[in-house]
Design a protein that fits this description.
The chain has two helices and six strands; from the N terminus they run H-E-E-H-E-E-E-E. It is α+β, with helices and mostly antiparallel strands. It has one domain. A six-stranded antiparallel β-sheet has the order 1-2-6-5-4-3, covered by helices on one side. A hairpin with a 2-residue loop joins strand 3 and strand 4.
Length: 85
Amino acid sequence: MVNQDELEQEIAKSYWRKTNYIQPHEYMMAKDNPELFAELKRLIQEGGYEAEFMGKAYRYVNIGKYKYWAYDTLVNRALLGENSF
């Protein structure tokens, strides 16, 4: 991904599964889009911020109207301000 617009276009094209595990959010598995997964994980690690959720620190990055965080082989996202993630 070269710029923010291209990144957001790639995110919009990707398949995001919905889940209500703990709180409603969506996730994308690494195998579904390895390049986007790698880019989002890099952005989270390099430019993200830490916040606590259920007593544990996680690293997030905000892109557009979502906040993203990585866990193992998936990237999660939730609408900004919608829940306590």
